[in-house]
Amino acid sequence: MKKLLIGLIGLIGFISGVQAQITHNSQGRLDENATEVLGKAAKKLQSVKGSVTLTLLDSEKKQTGKYTAEIVYWKGKYHLTTDGMEIWCDGTTVWQWNKTAKEIVINNMPPDSEIDLLNPGRLIVNYAKNFRAKYIRTEDDGTAIIDLQPRSAQSYHKIRLFIDEESGVLKRMEVQKYDSSREIYDFSKLKFIPIKGAFKFNPEQHPEAEVIDMR
């Protein structure tokens, strides 16, 4: 359950606004292919609902965990639902409602300037600040593969993104660590439709729960 919460909490803020970024390869030169694909992905992921599956692999590529959540995102706001837990964010505040433990944890949304490894939307929007991007290739099915290498030392050495080159839809994200273990996020059943809502959570509606305010 702990790994589930860590992984799914990282998915919050999947959509957090869009702006153009300049992409450079590992030698510092402009990687125009990566810039174009990542720009499409950032623009695409503003209003979407669907599913995400987190798969954990150890250093021998053996599966150690697999979890699925339903997601709804709209311009930096979101609602994530999985077994026994819901996460809400109104763009400023994050509420984690653990139904099983009867616990509500409240946090501030982290600033855009912070590296957020498990936050695909913000990672794509702000990648130029913290990563060097490199276009690898485009598969026969039209999937562009782009590697993001951190500019500073991290617990991982690379993030590999799989993006539909034509539409800009993010299909998969792989976090590749130094010990060869991986965290894989597969996005499916995505519907890019108009979504609106306050995306707020009211702890007072659950008096049986313990409220932990970390703000």
Which H/E pattern describes the elements?
HHEEEEEEHHEEEEEE
Radius of gyration: 17 Å
Instruction: Report helical residue fraction.
Output: 10-25%
**Secondary structure: number of strands:** 12
What structural category characterises the helix and strand content? mainly beta
**With helices defined by DSSP (H or I, 4 residues minimum), what is the helix count?**
4
Structural features:
single chain, 215 residues, mainly beta, 4 helices, 12 strands, globular
What does this structure look like?
There is one protein chain. The protein has four helices and twelve strands. It has 215 residues and is mainly beta. A twelve-stranded mixed sheet has the order 7-8-9-10-11-1-2-3-4-5-6-12. The protein is globular. The two termini are 24 Å apart. Mean pLDDT is 83; it is low at 12-29.
